[in-house]
Structure formats: structure tokens, C-alpha cells
Design brief:
This protein is of the alpha/beta class. Helix content is 32%, strand content 15%. A 9-stranded mixed sheet has the order 13-12-11-7-10-9-8-14-15. The chain has a 6-stranded parallel sheet with strand order 3-2-1-4-5-6, with helices on both faces. A hairpin with a 5-residue loop joins strand 9 and strand 10. The relative contact order is 0.14.
Length: 474
Amino acid sequence: MLHRVPSSSRRRFLSQSAAALGFPMIVPSSVFGKPGRPAPSERITVGAIGWGTIAGDWTPSFLSNGKCQVIAVADPMKEYGHYGYDGKETGGREAGRKIIDESYSKAEHKPVKGCTAYADFREMMEKEDLDAVQVSTPDHWHAYMAVYAARQGKHIYGQKPLALNLAEGRLMSDEVAKAGVTWQTGSQQRSDVYFRLACEQVRNGRIGKLQKVRVGLPGGHKNWNGMADQINTAPVPADFDYEMWLGPAEQMDYRPALLPLNWRHNFNFSGGMITDFGAHHIDIAQWGMGTDLTGPVEMKNISGKLDLAALYNTATEFSFECVYESGIVMHVASPESKLMPEVEAQNAQAGSTKAFDHVGVFFEGEDGKWIYVNRGKIQASSPDILRDKARDGEIHLYESKDHTDNFLSCIYDGKPTATPIEVSHRSISISHLANIALRSGSTSLKWDPKTETIADNAAASKLLSKEWRKPWAL
């Protein structure tokens, strides 16, 4: 059985920087522990908050990393079959606990029962000696849990999209900065070589002066849980604390159509595909433009299809343009807009028979030069654009090859992660603004990224924030 040694020395070890201590934060494996793995007393202890969809996909990256040990999991559902993406995983705290213990048992070649399951994340954080938490909950919980953890001095890996609305994102960023804890957003594309290369080449002028950016996001309402037709209220499943799951969100009766994961299509819990994938691709566009800590000054030509009276009330189709102070325009749309005909034409010329779905990021430069990047794919108008890598004296963007390891390493050395919270707040703010416009019936918005205010639109400004349901407060 794996053992952890809670101690004030470990706590000091993980909260001070290498510079302050005057020696390397990760001590050589020859001193103690297995090769490449710190001794139990120096491992980062992690608690998983939420075990349903993304937790099942990403917690294994913590379990396989020798710098940490996952010792607890919290979820208001005890156990639920077919809880993950497309029903490929099970969810709930007991499912998480079993997976965690089984993973360590396999690694240790003997039974391990070192993980404790909790229905309430607050109880987990009170009882367990945690250094960090991984927040893998629906979006409406992100801000509350982030602030709660930051105020307790916990390092935080928070899944995207960062927050449910703009005001929550600002609160989160300010509280994390005040607490001085390490933060990593689960925008894993920042640790992908193709996305970094695309942005680096653009920033170094390989396509000439950047003229325009096009961002294609998925649309529609995907039926992840297979129960989209079950929109009527129903009895709450046994061993599920639905009130706890709702938390600070507006009161809504339980409906099978919402759980699991289809909650993403309801504004009470999320912002639809605009925030889900906008947190990824708009973030990459910001990286490539060098606007990580600011945003557009105007949103225009905003249109979309959504039914605010329906249970699934987020946009299925959308298109909007973001105008930056530099004059660059970023056009964001769902696939129906067919934003990137150049890539489709190049693929057809190369004899590709695979349909192009117009999802990804397209950087348009001078003289017909361009770079397109998506998951597992990077293309350019000319192969030379990608071959001419950044040279000495040019811009070399933050390099991370493992998003989880980057987070854990930054806890040790105190350096910024690949996706700091303020950067993520700025990126997701654009998606929030698009949703605000669609929900308020606005075709354009004037935005001040310095004050984070909307000019001359009271209906839109009202949607920048949302009150938490009582008694939830911080």
C-alpha cells in the first residue's frame, strides 16, 4: 500500500520557490524514492473534484505521473453507468475511487486502497492533506470551487471553459493571483506541438503581416448521454445528491436529458459549443495574435440560431466577428459558414477524399499566405512556411509537451504554467460576449477589455454576471 507522510516540511517544500530555498525543488531519485519519483513525503497530493466526463479522460495523466499522488475524489453521485463521453466510462465518486486505487495497485503490483471518496468536496478539503485539486465539474461550479480552493492555498488544475460568465472569470483570476497558488487551465492545446508551431510561425511573420483570423467551432447539440428526448422532470436517481450538484446554479428540477454531460446545452450550467470549443480554438487564435492579456474592442455581425425557451437553449449555429485595436478581425463561426475554403481546396488538390468540417484556426497573412491548425493537423499555403522554424532572437512561445506534468512541475518551481488563469479568462471572455449578444438580441457590442465593460447596452451588460443561488456564497 502506498503511504503519504503529511508534514509541515512537505507543505513548506511545495509552497516555496526553488530560488527562495536555494536548491532544486525535485530532489534526485538517488536520494530517496523510485527512479524519477519523489519520496512519498515530497509528492504533491491531489484531490479530484468531479468524476464524470473529463475527469475520466484526464485523471490518468495524474495517476501515471510520479510527482503526485491522487488520494481523494469528490462527487455528489455515488456511481452511475455510462457517465462519460458517448457512454464509454462510468461516473460518480465510487467509480473514481475504484479507478484510482486500481491504477496504483497495478503500478505497485499489490492491492492499494489509498483513495477516499466524498459526496461533498468541502469535506474532502477539510479532512485530506491536499496540495492541489483537479476541478472537473460542470461549468457552473468552476468559479465557486476555484475561489474556495485558492483561499485554502491549494494549487488548482481547472478544466475549461474557465467560468460560466465574465464576472466569475474575473473573480477567479483575482483570487488566484491574491492567493499566489499555481493554476493550470485544461486548455491542453497549449501543450500541443502543432498549435504552438502555428502560433509561433505567425508571430514571427512567416505569413507576412497577419490580416485576419478565422476560427471554426463545432455547432449543434450533441446527444452525449443518449437521453435528449427525456426532457420531462423525473425522480432523482438513488445515491445522487442533486441539490449538491446544482450548487450555486439556478433551481431546476431534475431531468434525465441534462445528465450526464448534456447540461452543456443549457445556459444555467454552460454556454454551449461556443464556450466548450471556444475555450480551445479562440484561445489559440489569441495566442497567435499575441493578444493573450487583452481582447477585441468590438463584436459585430453577430448572428445565430437558438431557442431560449427550450431545455437545450444554447446556439446550434452562430457567426460573429471580433475587431481588435490593431484592426485585425477574427471571424468565429460554426461549420455551416464554411470559413476556410482555402484548406478545403488544398485538400481536394492533394486528392484527399475526407470531408473537411471547417473546424480549427486559420491565420491569413499577406500575398495569399496562410496557416491552418486543428487537432492532429497543421497545414500552410506553402510547406516552407512550417519548415522555417523560429531562430535565435525571434519569438519562442512557451513550450509544454505534457499539460499535467507542466502543472505539477510549476507547483515545484513556482513558474507560470502553459495556461495561466488570466490568459484563459481573456480567451473565454470572447465566447461569453458572443453568448451575451445572442441572448440579448444584439448584433453588435462595444467592448472595453481594460475595464471589461459593454458600452451603451443595458440588456447585454446585465448578462455579464449572474447571482448564485442561496445559500451558496463566498
